[in-house]
Amino acid sequence: MGQLLCQSLQATLQSYAPNVAKRQDSSYVVPPAPSPEALAPFVSALAPLRRIIKPKLYGIENVPERGALLVGNHTLWGVFDLALLGPEFIDRKIVVRGLADHFHFKVPLHRDAITAMGAVPGTRDNVRELMRRGDNILVFPGGAREVAKRKGEKYQLIWKNRIGFALMAIEGRYPIIPFASLGIEDALDIVLDTENPVLAPARIFAKKFLDAEALPIVRGVGPLPIPRPDRLYFWFGEPISTLEYDGVANEESARDLRARTAAAIEGGLDFLQAEREHDPERSLLRRILGSGSEA
Predict the structure, then answer these.
(1) Which residues have CB under 8 Å from 180's CB, separation 6+?
(2) Which CATH class is domain 2-289?
(3) Are 29 and 98 in contact (CB under 8 A)?
(4) Residue 110 has what pLDDT?
(5) Three-class SS string for 180-235?
(6) Which of 41, 78, 183, 293 is the most exposed place for a label (fewest CB within 10 A)?
């Protein structure tokens, strides 16, 4: 599985490399969106895992082909559910440009990989350019802090005082598609979170060299940091229009939009938890045997 994923990512990088900007600096130019065809090797490599996990989606029809800001909850470690959500978009010919924290672009190879997948550094200038092009944009207001959850913070939105996504949506008159992801934080257990003194060196390193949060130590399959094969669930809510703000992006309007968006996401998480309780294919065995209702 790992070898297939690496091979597919290498193929994607090679096909997209001429258009990839290597550094985020004053001369940075937002690269064009990768085509679904360029991302096909990534989708193919994940096909076996998708058959096992069998992600279940609700409201995916609310995601347009272009011109929306997708805002959701960032889950523990922030990568496993995104790897399975991406192919769902690509299958539907929907390309989504992710906004990534700056530290991602400080790591060689990783930087190139996420750029090849369509991600850009999360600056306001870059967001304006993506909106000018009419691209779909994906953002997690919780950022690195929400990825590095502590014990007892399962599925919580940890947005601090961030309102940037709301300001940009109002300014660009972009509708917001709230979305929720459920499953990964039940498939991983936090062994040590970053409040533990044992991880003090990791906190110092991450802050000094990456300006980022250190990740907690987790376990899933046995002692490994690999999620148990629990089913993943995704919910996409109805668009939240920003036209009523008439392009006036101030703190008051942004906080109102932020509150509406957060409430929608939390409602989506509640909905997914209720649906999961009655899902006949929640168990791995039932999914493997192909019994129960279709996703």
Answers:
(1) 72, 73, 234, 235, 237, 265, 266, 268, 269, 271, 272
(2) alpha beta
(3) no
(4) 86
(5) EEECHHHHCEEEECCCCHHHHHHHHHHHHHHCCCCCCEEECCCCCCCCCCCCCEEE
(6) 293
pLDDT at 150: 97
Tell me which amino acid residue 292 is.
G
Contact predicate 228/220, CB 8 Å: yes
Q: What percent of the chain stands above pLDDT 90? A: 81
The pTM (predicted TM-score) of the whole model is 0.88
Most distant CA atoms of the chain, gap in Å: 55
Kindly report the CA angle at 83 between 81 and 85, in degrees rounded to 5? 65
**Distances in Å between the alpha carbon of 61 and those of 244, 246, 261, 275?**
23, 26, 18, 18
Q: Are 75 and 81 in contact (CB under 8 A)?
A: yes
Q: What is the pLDDT of residue 107?
A: 85
Question: How is residue 41 written in tokens?
Answer: 């090797």
Pull the structure tokens for residue 134: 């009419």
- The three-state secondary structure class of 152 is coil
Q: What is the pLDDT of residue 25?
A: 56
Q: Is 160 left (phi over 0), alpha (psi -120 to 50) or beta?
A: left
* Residues β-bridged to residue 72: 179
Q: Beta partners for 192?
A: 217
What would the pLDDT profile of 191-207 be if each residue is shown by its tens digit? 999 999 999 999 999 99
Q: Is the pLDDT of residue 3 over 90?
A: no
Angle CA 75–73–35, to nearest 5: 90
Neighbours of 14 (CB within 10 A): 12
Structure confidence by residue, pLDDT tens digits, 128-146: 999 999 999 999 999 999 9
Q: Where are the domains of the chain?
A: 2-289
